[in-house]
Amino acid sequence: MSQLIRLFRHTVHPLLFCFVLCVFCIEVAAAEQLGTLHPQSDGSYFSGVESKRFRGRTKMSLVTFQGQLWLFGGNVGTDEVWSSQDGDVWTQRSVSNAFPGTVTTTSQVVVFQNQLWLINGLEGSVWSSADGLAWQSQEAIGASFNGREHSQVVVSVTPKGEERLWLIGGHASQTNRFYNDVWSFDGRQWEEVLPPDSAYSFSGRKEHQAIAFQDRLWVIGGWTADQEYNNDVWSSVNGKMWTLETDRPGFTERRGHQIVVSNDGRGEQLWLSGGEYFNGYRRNLWLSNDGIHWQEQPGEIDYSRRAGYGVVDFNDRLWVVGGEDAAGRTLNDIWSWTHGTDWQSHMIGTDFKGRADHQAFAFADRIWVVGGLNDEYECENDIWSSTDGLRWQRHRSHADFSPRCGHRIALFNQRLWLVGGGRDGVYNDVWTSQDGIHWQQVLEHAPFSARLNHELVVFDQRLWVIGGRGADESLNDVWSSVNGTDWIQETTGDRSFLSSIIHRVGRLMGVASGTIFPARANHQAIAFNGLLWVIGGEGPDGIRTRDRYLSHQYDDVWTSNDGRQWHRQPVDKLATYFIQSPNGNGSMDPGQVEVPFSIWELFGSETVITLEATGERLWFIGGHSFFISRVWSTLDGKHWVSTNPSDSDSAFKDKTIEGHQALRFDNQFWVIGKTFWRSSDGWNWQELEPWVVAD
């Protein structure tokens, strides 16, 4: 037997590899880039720049404009522009070629005279836009203006309702000069209101805050030339003469803090939060109704300590976006609150991380993810759901059942049922839930042995447990239940070493042996065309290593009409594989090749069923393989087809998709695992970047 296996590996596999490599090269030449679809608030999509999570950043511009939140640039060194109608879903906007280049810490964007204005302090350039996308160059600040970073741009409104734009202070890094000058703009021309180093001004500074409040301009805190943090408060009625209002406001010295004017029902007040101090970062919240007297607000602020973030008043809530923490990490989380209370996290820290050996399923008009292996290779028992596959909400950090991987969940009798899985050990418990969030234990120890990576399927009005991997061996027993509580053993299975050898010999010879499939895990069991099917999977060779069994992969297909008697189905050894090839006209001609079905020897694939005019179609998606992951489908379980997707040589762009879950939701295919994918037709797939909304 070992000689036969070695002969197969050294003769058939190399030839097979060369064949598939040729197909691979043809597909690469035929690859076409997919257009990207972007979800909108009304449920529609538009083509353009991909809608995703923006990168963490600090010192960006955050403004409210035309009923939306707008975010510009930051320290990421790009000219990125993002907007959001609700603070949850953000869309990266495509700007015109006339956009003023890099929007970094040298620039600020404000709303002035019903338009967006970008002031580049380093270059002294000025740009305006009526929609945030098309930008026009305006008159520069002035010939005597000295370029700088970290200046503050603020808009004031006179009692007559006239707006004026102000640029205050800043720092020139090349000369290490700290400025305290003031420039003003009325929409037509710039004026130097206060020259540098004026005795009537505050000391030169950067990362301070400037704001218009109660018909005065205010400058608060910042970093000065003497390498000191400050908490002094200055004000001016005209920008020319400045008065020190207080150097003991109550809050400590800081820079990179934020101040916003907001009305909580007691009149307009200044709200100050965050910032950096020499011994750490701040996150406390201070209020003042006159700019001089400040009171710290009681209660905890939910977001982490930070500086250089964006803050704005939007939809009757105050919003905090991004910033930098004490470890120097840029953040991309978003928080909002109603004047110090009712905190909501709209994006918690990082993207919703993928996982493996979890369960994902459609239930109650949502996609659910339960448990599984996280990035730290630890099993979880958390519960998440999403209405669109992009925005994910965590319902439970720790569910009623213990953390686990390799468990199975099925919908049966209008309830969810969870069976088995493992963490430190292997389980045979049974749990049920009506809502996906709250779970009750039905059986602590079911009559079948403990297992993981088994299958849990609904067939013939019963719930079935099929195969899996136990604590010390692979399994092929079959159990059923009419209520999830009382279980009947339908087959005993045969897991002896001799039986395994017999099955393997029969498999190599193409002959079915016995009335039960060989022991396996990570297989697929599904009700299809009125039969119960078991397809593929991973089985042991009988040799135990320190961590697991050495295993082989099955490409066999078994069916049963009662769960007791099983029959191996004949499967074409050549599967149809559709491709596109370039022709002399520069376009693509459709074609097809036949691929040896043995390349489909894999485990951990996922099955999905769709209904067509000719009947049910069974889809086989992803899985662990020597080759890249693909998508196969069949109408009868015998003839299998795959296709060359239009965006690359692989449905998943050369990524091996394993430890995942596949499902149908909202008339689309979804793959949820270490990476997230969506497809409308099963052939063309779009990779998603999900994120977290508030718990």
What keywords describe this structure?
6% helix, six-stranded mixed beta sheet, mainly beta, 695 residues, five-stranded antiparallel beta sheet, 2 helices, disordered N terminus
Write up this protein.
- About 45% of the residues are buried.
- Strand 8 and strand 9 form a beta hairpin.
- It contains 2 helices and 56 strands.
- It is elongated and about 95 Å long.
- The strands form 14 sheets. A 6-stranded mixed sheet has the order 47-46-51-50-49-48, covered by helices on one side.
- With about 700 residues, it is mainly beta.
Strand order of the largest sheet: 47-46-51-50-49-48
Global morphology: elongated
Average pLDDT for all residues: 82
Number of helices: 2
Structural class: mainly beta
Report the C-alpha radius of gyration, rounded: 32 Å
DSSP strand count: 56
Distance between the termini: 56 Å
Kindly estimate the percentage of residues that lie in beta strands according to DSSP: over 45%
Question: Biggest sheet, in brief?
Answer: 6 strands, mixed
